[in-house]
Design a protein that fits this description.
heterotrimer, A mainly alpha (309), B alpha/beta (285), C mainly alpha (300), A: MetI-like fold, flat, B: 285 residues, alpha/beta, Rossmann fold, seven-stranded mixed beta sheet, four-stranded antiparallel beta sheet, disordered N terminus
Chain lengths: 309, 285, 300
């Protein structure tokens, strides 16, 4: 074989050109799939902004952000989003009061005290809680939690904020416990041993060494769980009701932003009406809240990631 | 004269030919790097991984149908050099190559060279046996299929297994998984897979390092036989192995410098460099 | 305790700390039980409420507004259109998701170089995973139902659910691809395979069990989602199963929502029966996923 022939076989001048085009085409197909995720984000933002722009052509932003009455469909109409935001806040704060202490204590138990065999069973069992559809939690609130609340507080109605907060709290326990347990297990044993070497008890090691060392991961899990609670829809719609009002009584019905969206979704509000447009304004508000929390969570996690490696 | 390739070259192309040839002289290893009709020729080859330079101005000529061994302590760049021959380094994103490495006189780093086509001419066997989780037959046939050499696959698979000295052991179980073989058999399967599409050159990256002594000696016999038909370049950390099976030996020492390249006998009996002698006699490395 | 014991001093303090420690462990253990007890209570509640209501008729008849029809001896009423609708919806979602999810993951793991665009896409995927599902519903409503004029159809619902679970499928597929040893890729490159051949012949077959496990788990999340298909306009009063991509559809979570909000207390039992059917299907999907994972646990 001559040298020229040898060379031709390894250059792109030969039959290989076809393969190259095929490979480039395949690469573009895969790239387009990845691009769909970017287009999804763009789509969400554009859809929400477009609908909101139409809404705010008829309603002043000031009224929307500061008004304390929400009734965009039924006259007399008013467009203050605060009752919905308040409803969402009650659920979020209430569920956090349940999930954060219980979830953190569970994580400490699983990471520091539990037998590895026990942990291997308990952790996935708790994660089942996160896999149960939220509609089931709504049913659970109506048929189990609310009757119990009514037993203790007889005036409570069928729909009440407390039941919503409790089921959402149960739902997000595994987010807090699993992610926090991951962070705690990642704390190197050297640190624990150093504290034991100084005569610390196991309690002190857990609370003064492990928890502070894993704090960034633990806090990131809290924020993620809160963000989930803010966006939670079906359970709060069924449990907490559809009465937008600013109340501090947890046994009163309320309405969250998500529950309002469901209300419009199941009613036959016509396209282009103010009710339809309000969907997107509320959606944008919700999206902005969860997005900022997710970004904070990611930021905390990435910022402190290398600390204990 | 000692081999000092220092840092990255600062000589620009516009400088005179005289000066260039002088620096090349300085970069050249001790020994007799020139061979007649080399298949592979490396000139002033630098390889970088990110900011780190893994190879410094390698000059080497690899003869046809001979076994060329690359030896040296770990981290000396011998595997890096091997992988730059068939452009496996392309798969490492941070790897960058300067200088020239030619195959039959054609620089394989030219823009018009297709690394896939190159690897069809220059096959490779890896440190750990890595058969696919497929049947023995499909493992050997894989290269033929991807290269479109689909005629007489049966015959080519048999020939390759025979050349790899594996046929007698597996003839009755060609359909069983390649992963069911022993480590030594797996490695010979990988060799069969590499030679089935009939490449010209076979690169071997410490092919026996994961094997027991009996399997190792089978691989060594095989390497010597393969050199009758193929050009073999083999990386090994085992000096006795290099002495036993190779015709030419290149000694890389720390930091990615090729210190000496010569006939294997010469390297092991009377090396020019004191550092190579120290290394061969086990004073370091 | 003898006074010559050199460790005697300060043992009171240590004892006190031990006490606190024991109380602390008790609290942590009790907290762990809360989650487990809640899970047991939830399942027990659903089973109790649905007892006697999950019948063959419930699985094979369309819904009814009249509670007597659900009872034994009644005309027969149940979840049939929603059950079939959910299965169609998930099957269609699976087709879209596998194509897009595996494609995107292959691009990110096998093709993309480490540059700003890749990090941007990956950060974007992480953020999408945290977007509330009802927002995806709004997206589906505006783009698929209205924009693309698909109406409240099966395909619009499936596309919406696809976008919802895409981030999870991509991330789990990336993990499966990352678990394929590099030596396998190198072996294929070494005999002159092109990148596409390496992916098709070596990487994807090896990663397949992991990809399937991740995809099935994601689909089991999609089948329980209510909010997105509610926004897209899934029907609650449909008496036939969907018969085409563009036909309107009903789905189990929607039906359960409808029943749970009806004022007659008996419909609570019907809702519970629907939940039992939904959870059974979820359980089956998860069992299949775990089976695949255990059966094909990749050898090291």
């Amino acid at each position: 074989m001559s040298q020229a022939e040898e060379t031709a076989e390894i250059t792109t001048g030969g039959a290989r050109g076809i393969d190259d085009r095929k490979n480039a085409a395949i690469r573009y197909v895969f790239f387009s799939c990845a691009l769909v995720t970017v287009l999804t984000t763009l789509g969400i933002i554009l859809v929400l902004i477009q609908g909101s722009v139409e809404f705010f052509q008829q309603v002043s932003i000031l009224e929307y952000l500061t008004g304390t009455e929400w009734s965009p469909v039924i006259r007399p109409r008013s467009y203050g989003v605060l009752p919905l935001v308040w409803g969402t806040l009650i659920i979020t704060v209430g569920s956090a009061l349940i999930a954060i202490p219980i979830g953190t204590a569970t994580a400490i138990y699983l990471s520091e005290y539990a037998d590895p065999q026990v942990r291997k069973i308990v952790k996935p069992t708790l994660e089942i809680l996160a896999g149960i559809p939220t509609i089931v939690y709504g049913f659970f609130a109506l048929s189990f939690i609310t009757p119990i609340i009514q037993y203790f507080v007889p005036d409570t109605g069928t729909f009440n904020a407390a039941a919503g907060a409790i089921v959402v709290g149960i739902m997000i326990i595994p987010m807090v416990s699993s992610l926090s347990e991951d962070a705690m297990s990642a704390v190197p044993d050297d640190l624990r041993n150093a504290a034991y070497g100084l005569g610390a008890t196991k309690f002190e090691v857990s609370t003064r060494v492990v928890v502070p060392a894993s704090l960034s991961g633990v806090i990131a899990s809290y924020i993620l769980a809160l963000s989930r609670a803010i966006g939670e829809t079906m359970a709060v719609t069924l449990a907490a009701g559809m009465s937008p009002q600013i109340t501090t009584d947890p046994f009163e019905p309320i309405q969250t932003m998500t529950a309002y969206m469901v209300q419009i979704g199941i009613s036959d509000v016509s396209v282009g009406s103010i009710g339809y447009q309000s969907l997107f304004a509320v959606g944008l508000t919700l999206f902005a809240m969860t997005l900022s929390m997710n970004l904070i969570s990611l930021w905390i996690k990435s910022r402190y990631r290398e600390e204990y490696q | 004269m000692t081999a000092n390739a220092g840092g990255p070259r600062t000589v620009s192309k516009s400088e005179t030919d005289d000066f260039r040839s002088e620096t090349e002289q300085e970069d050249a290893p001790l020994g007799t790097p020139r061979v007649a009709d080399p298949v592979i020729e490396s000139r002033d080859l630098d390889v970088y991984y990110g900011d780190e330079q893994a190879l410094h101005g390698i000059h080497m000529e690899i003869p046809e149908r001979k076994v060329t061994a690359l030896i040296g302590p770990s981290g000396c760049g011998k595997s890096t050099f091997l992988r730059s021959i068939n452009r496996m380094n392309d798969l490492i994103e941070i790897a960058r190559v300067d200088g020239e490495l030619s195959f039959h006189g054609k620089n394989v780093y030219d823009d018009d060279v297709d690394p896939v086509a190159l690897r069809r001419k220059i096959g490779m066997v890896f440190q750990k046996p890595n058969p696919f989780p497929k049947s023995i037959y499909d493992n050997v046939a894989y290269g033929l299929r991807v290269q479109g050499k689909a005629d007489d696959v049966d015959e080519q698979v048999h020939t390759a297994l025979e050349r790899a000295a594996l046929l007698d052991e597996v003839e009755d179980q060609l359909d069983s998984s390649g992963l069911d073989l022993s480590g030594g058999q797996q490695q010979r399967l990988c060799i069969a897979r590499a030679i089935a599409p009939d490449p010209e050159v076979i690169l071997m990256d410490e092919p026996a390092s994961a094997l027991d002594p009996v399997a190792t000696s089978k691989i060594e016999d095989l390497v010597e036989e393969l050199a009758e038909e193929y050009t073999v370049v083999i990386v090994t950390h085992n000096m006795q192995q290099a002495a036993r099976i190779s015709d030419k030996t290149a000694v890389f020492l720390t930091g990615g410098h090729l210190v000496e390249f010569d006939d294997t006998n010469k390297i092991f009996e009377n090396p020019e460099s004191d550092r190579v002698e120290d290394y061969i006699t086990g004073k370091f490395g | 305790m003898s006074t010559s014991n050199p460790f005697a001093e300060g043992t009171d303090d240590i004892e006190r700390k031990r006490m606190i420690g024991r109380v602390f462990v008790a609290i942590c253990f009790a907290s762990t039980l809360v989650g487990i007890v809640a899970l047991v209570a939830l399942i027990a509640d659903v089973l109790y409420e649905s007892w006697g209501w999950v019948t063959w008729e419930f699985l094979t008849y369309p819904p009814s507004q009249v509670i007597e029809n659900f009872l034994p001896g009644g005309r027969g009423a149940g979840i049939y259109p929603a059950l079939v609708g959910s299965i169609f919806l998930i099957a269609l979602t699976a087709v879209f998701t596998v194509f897009l999810g595996v494609g995107a993951a292959v691009y990110l793991e096998e093709y993309a170089s480490e540059n700003w665009l890749t990090s941007f896409i990956e950060a974007n995927i992480a953020n999408l995973a945290g977007v509330p599902s009802i927002v995806y519903g709004l997206l589906g409503l505006a783009i698929f139902v209205r924009g693309m004029q698909l109406g409240s159809s099966l395909v619009a619902g499936a596309l919406t659910l696809t976008l919802l679970i895409l981030p999870i499928v991509i991330v789990s597929t990336q993990e499966a691809l990352r678990a394929v040893p590099d030596s396998q890729r190198q072996a294929a490159y070494g005999v002159g395979a092109t990148q596409w051949q390496v992916i098709r012949d070596v990487v994807l077959p090896r990663a397949l069990p992991g990809i399937m496990t991740g995809t099935i788990l994601s689909l089991s999340r999609a089948i329980g989602e209510t909010a997105p298909i509610l926004m897209v306009g899934a029907a609650t009063s449909l008496f036939v199963a969907p018969d085409g991509l563009t036909s309107s559809f009903s789905a189990m979570p929607m039906m359960i929502f409808e029943w749970a909000t009806l004022p007659e207390p008996e419909f609570q039992h019907v809702a519970a029966a629907g939940i039992v059917v939904l959870l059974t299907i979820l359980l089956l999907m998860n069992a299949v996923a775990i089976l695949i994972r255990n059966r094909y646990d990749p050898r090291s």
